[in-house]
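Our consortium's second objective concerns turning raw sequence data into structural hypotheses that experimental partners can test. To show how far this objective has progressed, the report includes one record in full. It was chosen at random from the queue rather than selected for favorable results. The single chain below, 334 residues long, was entered without modification.
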Amino acid sequence: MRILVVILCVFLGIINLNAQDIHFSQFIYSPLSLNPAHTGNFDGNWRFSNNYRNQWSSVGIPFQTISAGFDKPFRTRRGYVALGFLFLNDRSGSAALHINKAGVSFAYHFRLKPGHYLGFGIQGLYAVQQFSLQDLTFPSQFNNLTGVYDASLPNDINQWDENVNYPDINVGVEYRKNDGKMKPFGGVALFHANKPKVSFLREDNTLNMRVAGNAGINMMLKENLYVEPRLLCMYQKQASDFVAMAEFGYLFPLKSTVERVYVGAGLRTALTGYDALILSGGIGVYHFLVGISYDVNISNLARVSNLRGGFEVTIVYKDIVKTLNQITIPCDRY
């Protein structure tokens, strides 16, 4: 685990990135958007995950993000391979900036030794990005005679596209220990590894890479009580995002309808200052996990937002592995 943390810190420190991508406060429950290597990284036959985030509705047109993912592992002698599908939708601000991404994830996880796994993943998405000028105004549209903006005046933009399309490649690596009372995990992912060209003004502008590192450890405090501290670090050139969280949960007996309940708290910050306090909670029923979180804004924008930040809902379903107890009874053939 120490080696993993050292590699994580060095990796985060040597890469320069640009512009902030989407993010979730309940990042661990959006596995395919967190790290391609998380594809198939669970105990079960298949998994479906769905996340919805609504942010800044208190200060204007909200930023809304939706993710939906499906993944399935296929066992091998040394570990397992996994295949997944991911869809992302993000809508931002008054320009009605929409980003839709869809594609596939592939991962290979192999056993280092009993209970210890190392995984590598790659993800290929195709993005469609669009916006609208309808609700925007520009300096050239300010009417000096009336003292207000006039949308009928020219915006002085000579050439632009309302739609851009591009391929997006993401890669990642992760480690996990899946037995014992202490189960550490962690990984590093590199997004936009192909640096796709993205420009509405037909300029030679590329989407800078984003690096995301996450780590944590699941610890059993008692037979049914656990705590799981987690850390997420993201960089994209001059933008940064750090989330430190802890989840406290209770596991119910195996035959119970309710499988577990949990509460959590965390802090989101950046190199420029604090951003939000995160409060979360959830319940697991019939292999469904439903989680809710809220970001309490504590940045300089708190005076305008009245501490209101982002609301988030996540739903995860796992089809649990069922092992059949087979008994061989010898009999004669006729």
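The partners drew two points from this record. The CA atoms of residues 91 and 270 lie 22 Å apart. Confidence is low (pLDDT under 50) at residues 1-19, 323-334. Both points have been shared with the crystallography group to help prioritize constructs.
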